[in-house]
Amino acid sequence: MGISECEACHGNHKILAPSDSMLGTQESAVCIQCHEARSEPYQLASRIKARLDEFVSKIGDVENSLDKADRRGVDVSDPRFKLREAKTSLILVRNLTHTLDLSEVEKKIEEGKRVAAEVKAEGEAALKEARFRKGGLIITTLFILLLAIAIFLKIKQIEKKSPA
Ligand code: HEC
Ligand code: HEC
Asked: What digits encode the pLDDT tens for the residues 127-153?
């Protein structure tokens, strides 16, 4: 039986859409159908799955923080666009699992995680800047208010001094 045959893992019926749960050593994983616990392929399946899960949750994490910034009215369209790059890496990683080559998979995942980290930093910077601007606006408003009061008092003073 050739391991390259799609049916070996995907089944004859092709009803099931491929998903991350096919990979790994949990009950839903196809790998355990043929590979015994603690065998090398089994361990590799477990490691690839762990890395993949980490990557997926990292992307979710970054997406959450962009959503949070979005809800506060911060423009995060640039980081969001860049996040697509990380998501593309995820698609490639899912396909790379076919190579059963951990180092190839890890390389791609590291690449994607680096992009995700950059996106997160950009999102946080945008949020910080928005907070800073809001703080600045409050200070400016207070300053203008104080100025208005001072001018008002000055006018009163001048009015008092000048003979009616
Ligand atoms: C060793 C088992 C195995 C074999 C053999 C295999 N696949 Fe897969 N395939 C998987 C696993 C596991 C996934 C799920 C990867 C994921 O989404 O994390 C997958 C996912 C996919 C996906 C979806 C990728 C994505 O973007 O989510 C496609 C398409 C696919 N396989 C096609 C094929 C084809 C075509 C063949 C035959 C040439 C094949 N597979 C052979 C295990 C296998
Ligand atoms: C239908 C049975 C079957 C399934 C399902 C299956 N394998 Fe295999 N696998 C084999 C066979 C047969 C070989 C080749 C014989 C050997 O080297 O033990 C092999 C070899 C391997 C090897 C070593 C050879 C290589 O190419 O480096 C790895 C690693 C491996 N499988 C991982 C996986 C992973 C991960 C999964 C789940 C996504 C999986 N296998 C699912 C049958 C299967």
From this structure: 898 888 889 999 999 999 999 999 999
pTM, rounded to two decimals = 0.82
Provide the Cα torsion 128, 129, 135, 138; round to 10°: -140
Question: What gap in Å lies between CA 33 and CA 18, rounded to an integer?
Answer: 16
Cβ of 23 below 6 Å from ligand 1: yes
Residue 46, CA atoms < 13 Å, CB-side half-sphere: 13
Closest CA to 54 of 131, 112, 120: 112
- Burial (CB < 10 A; 0-12, 13-18, 19+), residue 82, is middle
User: 6 CB less than 6 Å from ligand 2?
Assistant: no
How far away, in angstroms, is 2 Cα from ligand 1 center?
15
If you measure from the C-alpha of residue 79 to the centroid of ligand 1, how many angstroms do you get, rounded to a whole number? 30
**pLDDT band, residue 4 (cuts 50/70/90):** low
Nearest Cα residue to 31 out of 19, 40, 22, 20 = 22
The whole-angstrom separation of Cα 71 and Cα 125 is 15
Instruction: Tell me, using a 6 A CB cutoff, whether residue 45 lines ligand 2.
Output: yes
